[in-house]
Write a structure and sequence with these properties.
Layout: H1 2-11, E1 18-24, H2 27-34, H3 36-53, E2 59-62, E3 67-72, H4 81-93, E4 96-98, E5 101-103, E6 107-113, H5 121-137, E7 143-145, H6 148-167, E8 173-182, E9 188-199, E10 203-205, H7 207-217, H8 220-240, E11 248-253, H9 255-259, H10 263-274, E12 281-286, H11 294-307, E13 310-316, H12 323-327, E14 333-336, H13 338-341, H14 348-363, E15 367-371, H15 376-384, E16 389-391, H16 401-413
Parallel strand pairs: 6-7, 9-11, 11-12, 12-13, 13-14, 14-15, 15-16
Antiparallel strand pairs: 1-3, 1-6, 2-3, 4-5, 8-9, 8-16, 9-10
Helix pairs in contact: 2-3, 6-7, 8-10
Length: 417
């Protein structure tokens, strides 16, 4: 820290030092798997590499458990930052031989320069750490120079995270329901539960903004369980009050939830607590969320199916699952992503993709649901090609529980269900 402050002071009003921070990727995994002595040996070898290979007046030091700092002298050109980062990245990527083992690793780097990113040593350290965090969030094994816009996004993310932590206990979440309509009979056959957040400090926050933060922080587990319980509670109440027995409520299951070992028990517990029959519940899992251990995925889905829950693969066509992989999964239905429906009926690409998905669903004997239906022309195209169910603004936007109940009862009065 003193060297950094001295370098900044020496620079005066001219070009000062460049600070580079980097972490060794997967260091904690190596330490936990092979033991701390192996990990410490890697750190010592990394330190020797820096001291022997990085010239040009650079001073390097270990400044944390697996973090190093490289201080390049005053006058280092700003446009050299990328070249220097690549030099360090490739140097650190060479395999380490420790205790008879050859271990490969990568590094993630963050850079801040004087005077562009700060006029004091503490400012440069803060900005370099922000750049390092930005690089880590993008998957690691890359370098990033401090970017004020990235820092602003990170501050926004932290603000959302802080607000999310109290949102559940403060009752700020609202579960809405979008009707699902049988294309041929125009009957209301179910609904999809959709989460909305009216933050006490930020107002309405888009799910596209807060769901990724909830996923990343693990808060989605508690939030997802809340949505499932609310959905089952409303569904049971509506069925008891005269809604048709074959109506189902669909609830999205996030990747984190699906990977959690308690998912099946959580579903069973909530169904038991709300006294909702499993046949009235649909769990929607995104296609991208199904990437992973095929045996484990099939086992989890199979257990849920054995309980009696309907399983739906959401956003189909946007992921990367192969047809053979899909054929082994015990699903009941596919949902055509709205990005494909949007181009119907005039866009040739959308027509081709939707027709292909309909053919796949037919060959696998899966029910087909189209989301994002907004026009009669889209609905006619889907009907002609044998799609089963549709949802979208053509029928209704997501509705509050009271408005959804009124929607269904109005249709029942007119014989449409």
């Amino acid at each position: 820290t003193k060297l950094l402050e001295d370098a900044v002071a020496t620079a005066g009003g001219g070009r000062g030092p460049m600070l580079m921070l980097f972490d060794i990727d997967r260091f904690k995994t190596v330490a936990a798997t092979l033991g701390r002595p192996y990990a410490e040996d890697i750190l010592r070898l990394a330190s020797r590499r820096l001291q022997s290979e990085i010239g040009g007046g650079c001073v390097s030091a270990r400044v944390g458990d697996d973090r190093f700092a490289c201080l390049f002298p005053n006058g280092t050109e700003f446009d050299r930052a990328g070249r220097l980062a690549e030099t360090v990245r490739h140097l650190m990527a060479a395999p380490y031989t420790v205790g008879g083992r050859t271990i490969s690793s990568t590094v993630t780097l963050g850079i801040a320069c004087h005077p562009e990113h700060g006029l004091s040593g503490s400012e440069l350290m803060t900005k370099a750490e922000a750049a390092l965090h930005d690089a880590a969030r993008q998957g690691g094994n890359i370098w990033r120079v401090y970017d004020p816009l990235a820092a602003e996004r990170q501050l926004e993310r932290l603000t959302i995270e802080d607000a999310l932590r109290s949102a559940l206990s403060n009752g700020e979440f609202q579960v809405c329901f979008q009707p699902k309509i049988s294309i041929h009979g125009r009957r209301t056959v179910g609904m999809e539960a959709l989460l909305r957040w009216n933050s006490a400090t930020m107002g309405w926050v888009s799910p596209a903004v807060f769901i990724p933060v909830a996923e990343e922080t693990g808060l989605i587990l508690a939030i997802g369980e809340h949505v499932l319980r609310e959905s089952c509670t409303h569904m049971k109440k509506w069925l008891d009050s005269g809604f048709p027995e074959d109506m189902k409520v669909a609830v999205n299951v996030s990747v984190k939830q699906f990977q959690h070992p308690d998912l099946v028990h959580s579903v069973e517990r909530i169904l038991d607590q709300t006294r909702l029959h499993p046949r009235s519940l649909v769990l929607e899992i995104t296609e991208s969320g199904l990437v992973g251990d095929a045996v484990e995925l099939a086992e989890t889905l199979g257990t849920l199916r054995d309980i009696g829950v309907t399983l739906s693969i959401d956003d189909f066509g946007t992921g990367y699952s192969s047809l053979s992989y899909l054929g082994r999964l015990p699903a009941h239905e596919l949902k055509i992503d709205q990005s494909f429906v949007r181009g119907l009926p005039d866009t040739v690409g959308s027509q081709t993709i939707v027709e292909a998905i309909i053919a796949i669903a037919g060959s696998l004997n899966l029910k087909l649901v189209a989301e994002g239906v907004e026009t009669e022309a889209q609905l006619a195209f889907l009907q002609e090609r044998g799609c089963d169910v549709a949802q979208g603004y053509l029928f209704a936007r997501p509705l509050s529980p009271a408005d959804f109940e009124a929607f269904v009862r109005e249709r029942l009065r007119h014989g449409k269900r």
